[in-house]
């Protein structure tokens, strides 16, 4: 499980860096300032949760069962939250109206909040001191 978590963290981090650079150089010329800021919000959340998964994958205080739940929530959360933000920020560049999938953003955000909540529970449930 840890290998899968760490691999996903690495992929999320890599993609976040590529998309951040792409936004700073290529998209800067075609997006409004508000759209660019929105896109960068997706990048920031994706990168933060890549680091979160790195922490999760290297932490020995969390049960494997909870790790799996946190991993699934975080993975789907990043895909739904950051992914929908990327699409919404670049909406006017495509023929498809991505505002129809805008409801996915708060669902992804909820998944991310739940993953942090479960991490918190994992630490307060521990009977021993770290």
What does this entry look like structurally?
The protein has 130 residues and is mainly alpha-helical. It is built from 4 helices and no strands. Helix 2 packs antiparallel against helix 3. The chain is elongated and about 55 Å long. The protein starts with a helix and ends in a 5-residue tail after the last helix.
Number of continuous helical runs: 4
Tell me how many strands there are: 0
Helical content class: over 70%
Low-confidence region ranges: none
- The oligomerization state is single chain
Strand content: under 5%
- The shape is elongated
Q: Calculate the mean pLDDT score and round it.
A: 93
Note the run of SSEs as H and E: HHHH
Measured between the Cα atoms of the first and last residue, the distance is 22 Å
* Structural class determined from secondary elements: mainly alpha
Question: What's the Cα radius of gyration?
Answer: 16 Å
Main sheet? none
What features would you highlight for this structure?
single chain, 130 residues, mainly alpha
Summarize the model shown:
This protein has helices spanning 2-25, 33-58, 64-89, 104-125. It is mainly α and 130 residues long. Helix 1 packs antiparallel against helix 2, helix 2 (33-58) packs antiparallel against helix 3 and helix 3 (64-89) runs antiparallel to helix 4 (104-125).
């Amino acid at each position: 499980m840890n290998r899968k978590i760490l691999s996903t963290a690495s992929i999320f981090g890599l993609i976040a860096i590529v998309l951040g650079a792409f936004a700073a150089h290529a998209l800067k010329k075609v997006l409004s300032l508000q759209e660019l800021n929105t896109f960068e919000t997706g990048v920031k959340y994706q990168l933060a949760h890549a680091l979160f998964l790195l922490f999760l994958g290297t932490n020995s205080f969390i049960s494997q069962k909870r790790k799996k739940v946190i991993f699934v929530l975080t993975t789907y959360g990043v895909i739904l939250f950051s992914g929908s933000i990327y699409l919404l920020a670049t909406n006017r560049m495509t023929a498809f109206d991505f505002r129809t999938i805008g409801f996915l953003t708060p669902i992804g955000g909820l998944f991310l909040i739940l993953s942090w909540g479960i991490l918190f529970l994992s630490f307060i449930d521990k009977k021993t001191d770290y």
